[in-house]
Amino acid sequence: MLSYLKKDEGFAMHKAIKIPGKLLKGYKVMAPELFKLYITEIGHFPKAGEDSHEEKKGCRDNILIYCVNGVGHLILGDRKYELHGNEYIVIPATDKYIRYWADQKNPWSVYWIYFTGPTIEAFNKALKLDVLNQPLLIHFNEKGLELWTKIYDTLNQSLCFEHICNANFCLYHLLATFLFPQRHNHGVGDDRDIITPTINFMRRNINKKLSVEDMSASLHISASHFAYIFKKATGSSPIDYFNQLKMQRACQLLFQGNDKIKTVASDLGYGDPFYFSRMFKQYIGSSPGQYRISSKHGV
């Protein structure tokens, strides 16, 4: 077995493979044209518990993180995010501080892969991969997980030149299933035509109160049918998902700034700061004030 346990990095007892830098360097010298984009690490952490990973000086590789269920937390520079089931993010190579970890109450199951190349900056620019990008919702990416498994199994069998090249070629296909999901997740196109614009609509109106009727009106479908499709695709009702987005935004505002709680509440469409605080504790597990203190101290 070529996989190993990265106990020193907080992910004890979970499978991961890291390709030795010296080996990659030799292969790149031998055939540089085949290493325009290549994998450096890959791993999967089911129910990660209290594990965490930290890159204090950033990372020269891109990092794809895919949460299949549960909740995970991510700090990227001065921004903080939550990842829920069927959300992913591609963190581009950066010198900004990175830390990600599992939620204590509902730990995520997460797949990740590190990759880079000599033109990674141009690659990221062409695909508009930016450190300011937020986690994105995706329909359950069955094809992506099939490709992840193929890559992992290939590397786990051998780190010979042919196996690494095969894994790297699969990497392009894997990334495409996330970046262009409508081309790969067949049979869910109609749902995605509804879900994606709805979530974009929610994000644009994060400072307002929205009803299911508000969300379905622009789609020209009934509120009941819209609610059924949305919950089937995301696992949450439209209002519950909207509240999750509001609480995620609240976490960012509390972590990044020093505005009063009532100001944060108002910015998110809550006229009553006490009601906002109750909602926040319901979704996050602590009061806004407690969250601000603990998040800024890395608790």
From TrEMBL:
InterPro entries: AraC-bd, Homeodomain-like_sf, HTH-like, HTH_AraC, HTH_AraC-typ_CS, Tscrpt_reg_AraC-type_HTH. Keywords: DNA-binding, Transcription, Transcription regulation. It comes from the Bacteria. The keyword S-adenosyl-L-methionine does not apply. Residues 196-294 form the HTH araC/xylS-type domain. One of its GO terms (molecular function) is sequence-specific DNA binding. The keyword Cell wall biogenesis/degradation does not apply. Gene3D superfamilies: Homeodomain-like. Pfam families: AraC_binding, HTH_18. SUPFAM superfamilies: Homeodomain-like (SSF46689), Regulatory protein AraC (SSF51215). This is AraC family transcriptional regulator. It comes from Mucilaginibacter ginsenosidivorax.
